[in-house]
Amino acid sequence: MNWDVFLAPYEQAVEEIKIKLRGVRKQYNMSSTKHTPIEFVTGRVKPISSILDKAKRKNIPIEELESRMQDLAGVRIMCQFVEDIDAVIKLLRMRKDFEIIEERDYISDKKRSGYRAYHLVIKYPVQTIDGGKKILVEIQIKTLAMNFWATIEHSLLYKYSGEIPGNIIDRLQRAAEAAFRLDEEMSKIREEVLEAQAIFRRKEEEQRNH
Ligand code: 0O2
Protein backbone atom coordinates (compact mmCIF):
# COMPACT_ATOMS: atom_id res chain seq x y z
CA MET A 1 0.00 0.00 0.00
CA ASN A 2 1.43 3.38 -1.01
CA TRP A 3 -0.15 5.54 1.72
CA ASP A 4 1.00 8.86 0.23
CA VAL A 5 -0.74 8.10 -3.06
CA PHE A 6 -3.82 6.62 -1.36
CA LEU A 7 -4.27 9.55 1.03
CA ALA A 8 -3.47 12.36 -1.47
CA PRO A 9 -7.11 12.87 -2.63
CA TYR A 10 -8.19 12.96 1.04
CA GLU A 11 -5.59 15.68 1.77
CA GLN A 12 -6.87 17.59 -1.23
CA ALA A 13 -10.52 17.27 -0.17
CA VAL A 14 -9.76 18.47 3.38
CA GLU A 15 -7.85 21.51 2.10
CA GLU A 16 -10.57 22.41 -0.42
CA ILE A 17 -13.43 22.08 2.09
CA LYS A 18 -11.54 24.11 4.71
CA ILE A 19 -11.03 26.94 2.20
CA LYS A 20 -14.71 26.84 1.16
CA LEU A 21 -16.02 26.91 4.72
CA ARG A 22 -13.61 29.65 5.76
CA GLY A 23 -14.97 31.55 2.74
CA VAL A 24 -18.48 31.18 4.16
CA ARG A 25 -17.27 32.58 7.47
CA LYS A 26 -15.63 35.52 5.67
CA GLN A 27 -18.84 36.29 3.79
CA TYR A 28 -20.77 36.43 7.05
CA ASN A 29 -18.13 38.61 8.64
CA MET A 30 -18.42 41.12 5.81
CA SER A 31 -22.08 41.55 6.62
CA SER A 32 -22.76 44.00 9.44
CA THR A 33 -26.14 42.42 10.19
CA LYS A 34 -25.59 38.66 9.98
CA HIS A 35 -23.90 36.62 12.71
CA THR A 36 -21.56 33.90 11.44
CA PRO A 37 -22.64 30.46 12.61
CA ILE A 38 -19.06 29.24 11.95
CA GLU A 39 -16.51 30.15 14.62
CA PHE A 40 -13.61 28.20 13.10
CA VAL A 41 -12.87 25.23 10.90
CA THR A 42 -10.19 22.57 11.25
CA GLY A 43 -9.44 19.47 9.23
CA ARG A 44 -7.17 16.49 9.15
CA VAL A 45 -6.45 13.28 7.33
CA LYS A 46 -6.49 10.39 9.77
CA PRO A 47 -2.95 9.35 10.73
CA ILE A 48 -1.93 5.94 9.30
CA SER A 49 -1.58 4.39 12.79
CA SER A 50 -5.18 5.41 13.64
CA ILE A 51 -6.43 4.07 10.29
CA LEU A 52 -4.80 0.71 11.00
CA ASP A 53 -6.12 0.62 14.61
CA LYS A 54 -9.67 1.44 13.51
CA ALA A 55 -9.53 -1.02 10.57
CA LYS A 56 -8.52 -3.75 13.01
CA ARG A 57 -11.17 -2.74 15.57
CA LYS A 58 -13.92 -2.66 12.95
CA ASN A 59 -12.66 -5.60 10.89
CA ILE A 60 -12.23 -3.56 7.72
CA PRO A 61 -9.83 -5.05 5.14
CA ILE A 62 -7.32 -2.51 3.75
CA GLU A 63 -8.80 -2.80 0.24
CA GLU A 64 -12.21 -1.72 1.60
CA LEU A 65 -10.99 1.37 3.48
CA GLU A 66 -12.13 3.72 0.72
CA SER A 67 -15.75 2.58 0.87
CA ARG A 68 -16.04 1.67 4.55
CA MET A 69 -13.95 4.09 6.60
CA GLN A 70 -15.94 7.29 6.46
CA ASP A 71 -13.57 9.53 8.39
CA LEU A 72 -10.26 9.12 6.55
CA ALA A 73 -10.83 12.78 5.73
CA GLY A 74 -12.35 14.78 8.57
CA VAL A 75 -13.44 18.39 8.83
CA ARG A 76 -14.64 20.04 12.06
CA ILE A 77 -16.81 23.09 12.19
CA MET A 78 -16.93 24.84 15.54
CA CYS A 79 -19.85 27.06 16.52
CA GLN A 80 -20.46 29.44 19.42
CA PHE A 81 -24.05 28.37 20.09
CA VAL A 82 -26.05 25.16 19.70
CA GLU A 83 -28.48 27.14 17.48
CA ASP A 84 -25.59 27.82 15.09
CA ILE A 85 -25.23 24.09 14.49
CA ASP A 86 -28.71 24.01 12.88
CA ALA A 87 -27.76 27.00 10.74
CA VAL A 88 -24.59 25.23 9.57
CA ILE A 89 -26.50 22.02 8.80
CA LYS A 90 -28.98 24.01 6.68
CA LEU A 91 -26.11 25.75 4.93
CA LEU A 92 -24.43 22.42 4.11
CA ARG A 93 -27.69 20.86 2.90
CA MET A 94 -28.10 23.72 0.41
CA ARG A 95 -24.69 23.28 -1.19
CA LYS A 96 -24.38 21.79 -4.64
CA ASP A 97 -20.69 20.89 -4.56
CA PHE A 98 -21.13 17.63 -2.62
CA GLU A 99 -23.74 15.08 -1.69
CA ILE A 100 -24.70 14.30 1.91
CA ILE A 101 -25.04 10.55 2.28
CA GLU A 102 -25.47 10.15 6.03
CA GLU A 103 -26.25 12.24 9.10
CA ARG A 104 -25.69 11.24 12.73
CA ASP A 105 -27.21 13.40 15.42
CA TYR A 106 -25.26 12.84 18.64
CA ILE A 107 -26.77 16.04 20.07
CA SER A 108 -30.38 14.89 20.44
CA ASP A 109 -28.99 11.45 21.17
CA LYS A 110 -25.62 11.78 22.91
CA LYS A 111 -23.19 8.86 22.98
CA ARG A 112 -22.80 6.81 26.15
CA SER A 113 -19.37 8.37 26.69
CA GLY A 114 -21.03 11.81 26.92
CA TYR A 115 -19.89 12.78 23.40
CA ARG A 116 -22.10 15.32 21.63
CA ALA A 117 -21.77 16.53 18.02
CA TYR A 118 -23.58 16.45 14.70
CA HIS A 119 -21.89 14.31 12.06
CA LEU A 120 -22.46 14.41 8.32
CA VAL A 121 -20.82 12.09 5.83
CA ILE A 122 -20.48 13.60 2.40
CA LYS A 123 -19.36 12.34 -1.00
CA TYR A 124 -16.96 14.99 -2.22
CA PRO A 125 -15.65 15.13 -5.81
CA VAL A 126 -11.93 15.76 -6.23
CA GLN A 127 -10.11 16.15 -9.51
CA THR A 128 -6.93 14.10 -9.85
CA ILE A 129 -4.53 13.68 -12.77
CA ASP A 130 -6.29 10.36 -13.41
CA GLY A 131 -9.72 12.01 -13.56
CA GLY A 132 -12.49 12.79 -11.10
CA LYS A 133 -12.98 10.78 -7.93
CA LYS A 134 -15.65 10.96 -5.26
CA ILE A 135 -14.44 10.37 -1.75
CA LEU A 136 -16.07 10.17 1.67
CA VAL A 137 -15.47 13.00 4.12
CA GLU A 138 -16.84 13.22 7.65
CA ILE A 139 -17.92 16.67 8.78
CA GLN A 140 -18.32 17.11 12.53
CA ILE A 141 -20.23 20.15 13.77
CA LYS A 142 -19.80 21.08 17.44
CA THR A 143 -20.08 23.96 19.84
CA LEU A 144 -16.87 25.16 21.47
CA ALA A 145 -17.97 23.43 24.69
CA MET A 146 -18.63 20.12 22.88
CA ASN A 147 -15.25 20.38 21.20
CA PHE A 148 -13.47 21.12 24.47
CA TRP A 149 -14.98 18.04 26.09
CA ALA A 150 -14.28 15.77 23.09
CA THR A 151 -10.66 16.93 22.84
CA ILE A 152 -9.99 16.20 26.51
CA GLU A 153 -11.77 12.84 26.39
CA HIS A 154 -9.90 11.91 23.20
CA SER A 155 -6.52 12.57 24.90
CA LEU A 156 -7.54 10.44 27.88
CA LEU A 157 -8.71 7.62 25.59
CA TYR A 158 -5.31 7.76 23.94
CA LYS A 159 -3.45 7.88 27.27
CA TYR A 160 -5.33 4.89 28.68
CA SER A 161 -5.52 3.01 25.31
CA GLY A 162 -9.32 3.14 25.38
CA GLU A 163 -9.63 1.83 28.96
CA ILE A 164 -10.23 4.99 31.00
CA PRO A 165 -10.38 4.23 34.79
CA GLY A 166 -13.86 4.34 36.35
CA ASN A 167 -13.26 7.43 38.53
CA ILE A 168 -12.11 9.42 35.50
CA ILE A 169 -15.10 8.20 33.47
CA ASP A 170 -17.35 9.54 36.25
CA ARG A 171 -15.60 12.89 36.13
CA LEU A 172 -15.89 12.97 32.34
CA GLN A 173 -19.63 12.30 32.64
CA ARG A 174 -19.95 15.21 35.04
CA ALA A 175 -17.83 17.39 32.74
CA ALA A 176 -20.11 16.41 29.81
CA GLU A 177 -23.14 17.51 31.84
CA ALA A 178 -21.38 20.78 32.72
CA ALA A 179 -20.57 21.36 29.01
CA PHE A 180 -24.24 20.71 28.18
CA ARG A 181 -25.35 23.22 30.83
CA LEU A 182 -22.79 25.75 29.58
CA ASP A 183 -24.29 25.48 26.07
CA GLU A 184 -27.77 25.92 27.56
CA GLU A 185 -26.76 29.01 29.56
CA MET A 186 -25.01 30.53 26.55
CA SER A 187 -28.14 29.97 24.43
CA LYS A 188 -30.14 31.94 26.99
CA ILE A 189 -27.89 34.99 26.62
CA ARG A 190 -27.36 34.47 22.88
CA GLU A 191 -29.29 37.56 21.81
CA GLU A 192 -27.21 39.76 24.16
CA VAL A 193 -23.96 38.31 22.85
CA LEU A 194 -25.08 38.70 19.22
CA GLU A 195 -25.96 42.35 19.83
CA ALA A 196 -22.54 43.00 21.38
CA GLN A 197 -20.83 41.31 18.42
CA ALA A 198 -22.91 43.34 15.94
CA ILE A 199 -21.88 46.60 17.67
CA PHE A 200 -18.25 45.51 17.48
CA ARG A 201 -18.56 44.63 13.76
CA ARG A 202 -20.22 47.99 12.98
CA LYS A 203 -17.38 49.83 14.76
CA GLU A 204 -14.78 47.88 12.78
CA GLU A 205 -16.61 48.64 9.53
CA GLU A 206 -16.76 52.36 10.38
CA GLN A 207 -13.00 52.34 10.98
CA ARG A 208 -12.34 50.48 7.70
CA ASN A 209 -14.42 53.01 5.76
CA HIS A 210 -12.61 55.97 7.30
P1 0O2 B 1 -10.20 10.01 15.70
O1 0O2 B 1 -8.94 9.76 16.41
O2 0O2 B 1 -10.87 11.29 16.09
O3 0O2 B 1 -10.06 9.89 14.21
P2 0O2 B 1 -16.99 4.62 16.22
O4 0O2 B 1 -15.49 4.75 16.18
O5 0O2 B 1 -17.51 3.28 15.85
O6 0O2 B 1 -17.59 5.18 17.50
P3 0O2 B 1 -17.82 5.61 13.63
O7 0O2 B 1 -18.83 4.56 13.33
O8 0O2 B 1 -16.59 5.62 12.82
O9 0O2 B 1 -17.50 5.65 15.19
O10 0O2 B 1 -18.50 7.00 13.44
P4 0O2 B 1 -18.77 8.14 14.47
O11 0O2 B 1 -19.55 7.67 15.63
O12 0O2 B 1 -19.39 9.22 13.64
O13 0O2 B 1 -17.34 8.56 15.02
C1 0O2 B 1 -16.32 9.03 14.21
C2 0O2 B 1 -15.49 10.06 14.94
O14 0O2 B 1 -16.28 10.84 15.84
C3 0O2 B 1 -14.43 9.49 15.85
O15 0O2 B 1 -13.33 9.11 15.10
C4 0O2 B 1 -14.14 10.67 16.78
O16 0O2 B 1 -13.42 11.69 16.11
C5 0O2 B 1 -15.54 11.18 17.01
N1 0O2 B 1 -16.13 10.49 18.16
C6 0O2 B 1 -17.13 9.60 18.14
N2 0O2 B 1 -17.41 9.18 19.39
C7 0O2 B 1 -16.57 9.83 20.22
C8 0O2 B 1 -16.39 9.83 21.65
O17 0O2 B 1 -17.06 9.14 22.42
N3 0O2 B 1 -15.41 10.65 22.14
C9 0O2 B 1 -14.64 11.44 21.34
N4 0O2 B 1 -13.71 12.20 21.91
N5 0O2 B 1 -14.78 11.44 19.99
C10 0O2 B 1 -15.74 10.66 19.44
P5 0O2 B 1 -12.30 8.03 15.66
O18 0O2 B 1 -11.82 7.22 14.52
O19 0O2 B 1 -12.89 7.26 16.81
O20 0O2 B 1 -11.14 8.87 16.26
TrEMBL record:
GO biological process, one term: guanosine tetraphosphate biosynthetic process
Xref: InterPro entries: GTP_Pyrophosphokinase, NT_sf, RelA_SpoT
Pathway the protein takes part in: Purine metabolism; ppGpp biosynthesis; ppGpp from GTP: step 1/2
CDD domains from the UniProt entry: NT_Rel-Spo_like
Single GO MF annotation: ATP binding
Domain of life of the organism encoding this protein: Bacteria
Ranges of residues in domain RelA/SpoT: 43-164
Stretches assigned to coiled coil: 172-206
Entry keywords, A to Z: ATP-binding, Coiled coil, GTP-binding, Kinase, Nucleotide-binding, Transferase
EC number of this enzyme: 2.7.6.5
Keyword Protease: no
Gene3D superfamilies reported for this sequence: Beta Polymerase, domain 2 (3.30.460.10), Nucleotidyltransferase (1.10.287.860)
Subunit structure: Homotetramer.
The family this protein is said to belong to: Belongs to the RelA/SpoT family.
Protein name stated in the entry: GTP diphosphokinase
